[in-house]
Design goal:
The complex is a heterodimer of chains A (about 170) and B (about 200). With about 170 residues, chain A is α/β, with parallel strands linked by helices. Chain A is built from 6 helices and 6 strands. In chain A, strands 2-1-3-4-6-5 form a 6-stranded parallel beta sheet, sandwiched between helices. In chain B, helix 7 links the parallel strand 5 and strand 6. In chain B, about 45% of the residues are buried. The chains are: A alpha/beta (about 170), B alpha/beta (about 200). At the A-B interface, strand 2, helix 3 and helix 4 of A face helix 3, helix 5 and helix 8 of B.
């Protein structure tokens, strides 16, 4: 990611009121994670799998603080069980920011499943999402996701793709 | 050791704390054993989420004592949270694991702790949660509650309990959504904050 795109993500998170970020690092966002760690206004929590991160974010919601789950889109699959339980069972929302691995242009065979499954899994969970490929749209997309999740009390997701993450 | 007796002892020590719990029979038992904590307790029905949610709550409210009432099946579902707690070292999180060595809510088939080899407290210590103990009497349990509720490191008590549900207890009628609203309104009232506020327009 370019530094300007990293800055746009952090601006968006701050405008949305986020103070805690749970993440499991991936290669497409590799410049983002140290920037989040270094930001004095954001506490980062490294997790062992994305489902655990989703549950921690749910707990942060209950505290009145705002959290984000940052991950590769493969993490969505690891998060399905806690997302379904919290979102559909209790109305506890999680906002996700994920890198779009496996879209057209992907040249790693192992990443193809991530691209094929991301949107159908989001649709299966009835999670609204926006795929962002332009830097100018990042900040607004993140703010919009929080507005929607704090009106619906349900999950939403932003996937950053295209040249933003390559 | 009966889980209900442990719950009665723990409940007597709680006042301003927030509790997240699961699963199955322990939900109805806690509802009855600590009626003064009903609004301060989030009743969940999910494996693997309870202690992570409690940790998220503890991270968001670092001045408040948070209690996780987890289970053997629930913790085994996501042992990774122990490593996260080992690294993060929350100062306000007390965790009880009701270890009845079975999946009680579906009739009692054994969990991995039933065969004498798997030691959840040892796993926790190995993951960096140094204050992790296994107890087999209510007296031991209560002593660890006293210590764990004032500890400034994460503290885990694995309570070896029998699989007999307390007879004659009242069932909780609310679902996860209603429980969340009750809990959130309690957090809002006791913290003086807004979590689920009004819409822009009515």
């Amino acid at each position: 990611m370019k530094q300007s795109a990293v800055d746009a993500v952090i601006r968006g998170l701050k405008r949305a009121g986020v103070s805690i970020v749970c993440y499991l690092p991936d290669s497409l966002f590799k410049e983002l994670y140290p920037a989040l760690d270094a930001d004095p206004d954001i506490r980062t929590i490294r997790v062992t799998n994305e489902g655990e991160g989703a549950a921690i974010c749910g707990g942060v919601f209950l505290s009145g603080k705002r959290a984000a789950l940052v991950m590769e889109n493969s993490g969505l699959r690891a998060s399905v069980e806690p997302l379904a339980r919290m979102g559909l069972g209790a109305g506890i929302p999680v906002v996700m920011l994920m890198s779009y691995r496996g879209e057209l242009g992907e040249n790693n065979w192992w990443a193809i499943p991530h691209g094929i499954t991301m949107e159908p899994v989001l649709d299966a969970l009835r999670i609204p999402y926006r795929v962002v490929r332009e830097e100018e749209a990042i900040e607004r997309a993140i703010v919009d996701a929080y507005a929607w999740s704090y009106a619906s009390y349900y999950h939403s997701a932003i996937a950053l793709g295209g040249e933003l993450v390559r | 050791m009966k889980r209900y007796d442990c719950m009665t002892a723990l409940g007597a020590r709680l006042k301003d704390e927030l509790v997240i719990l699961s699963l199955g029979g322990s939900v109805d038992e806690w509802y009855n054993a600590a009626p003064h904590m009903r609004a301060a307790s989030l009743f969940q029905q999910q494996l693997g989420c309870v202690t992570p949610q409690a940790f998220g709550l503890a991270a968001g409210l670092p001045h408040r004592r948070i209690v996780s009432l987890d289970t053997d099946g629930g913790l085994l579902f996501n042992l990774g949270i122990l490593a996260t707690l080992g690294n993060e070292q929350p100062r306000n999180l007390f965790i009880v694991v009701w270890d009845n060595e079975r999946y009680q809510s579906i009739g009692g088939p054994p969990t991995h702790t039933a065969f004498g080899r798997v030691d959840l407290a040892a796993i926790a210590r190995g993951a960096g949660v140094e204050q992790a103990y296994t107890v087999r009497t209510v007296e031991e349990f209560d002593a660890h509650c006293e210590a764990g509720l004032k500890a400034d490191v994460p503290y885990i008590v694995v309570a070896k309990v029998d699989g007999i549900l307390q007879p004659g207890i009242k069932r909780k009628h609310s679902d996860g959504r209603e429980d969340k609203y009750i809990f959130v309104r309690h957090v809002e009232a006791t913290e003086g904050i807004v979590i689920m506020g009004p819409s822009e327009h009515n």
